[in-house]
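Aggregate trends can hide what the representation actually does to any particular protein. This step matters because it turns folding into a mapping between discrete strings. For completeness, the protein is quoted in full, as a sequence line and a line of structure tokens:
=====
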Amino acid sequence: MSDTFQIAGKTYQSRLIVGTGKYKDFTETRAAVDESGAEIVTVAIRRVNIGQDASQPSLLDYLPPSQFTYLPNTAGCYTAEDAVRTLRLARELLDDHRLVKLEVLGDPNTLFPNVRETLKAAETLVKEGFDVMVYTSDDPIIAKELEQIGCCAIMPLASLIGSGMGILNPWNLRLIIEAAKVPVLVDAGVGTASDAAIAMELGCDGILMNTAIAGAQDPVRMARAMKLAVQAGRDAFLAGRVPRKLYSADPSSPVTGMIAASK
């Protein structure tokens, strides 16, 4: 069954986006990305070499842009100005690449987003022609404002970046998903495959993750688990679960219409 989705006018098969940081080397990065089935990979411009340092190995050699869609991000930026400057650099390094992930952090301990600076940066980037996928809090009002600015995807956190705590507030995610007219992807906080499945069952269009895979004891195996979890959660969402019923049993084998036992 074909179930594609679109980001900034381009169609993708995989709804899993994976990061490229925190692996032991680029070889492991490539192996995990391959096992995940991801077509979009994020890269922290401030932390991963994609040509900034010609004397060091480049991620471009292991994950060629001809095979993957790059999603430069602004990890480590705490002001709108810094984030915009970083993505302008990414555009130059990647030959006028326009699809980016914006994140402006507000606190170095929690890495919670600074929504005021995020809104400011989003306005500038959209005006400059960037296709902005934006990391934000799970506040439905802020999510709607970012969509109105022109962001092509809204990416609310499930829980704090790198925490592995999973989906802490499914109700807010549902509100964002139901109101949005652009793709909604969970970003940050996924810890294991069941978290990914839950996010997709809620109706998310996709998931972005890095630490959950790269920080696992076996990153390549975890990447495969995440691929399957995203697929399973998406199928479950499309299939439509049975309604929850308190104190109202509905047996799998109903008693009505039973064939009477012979005497």
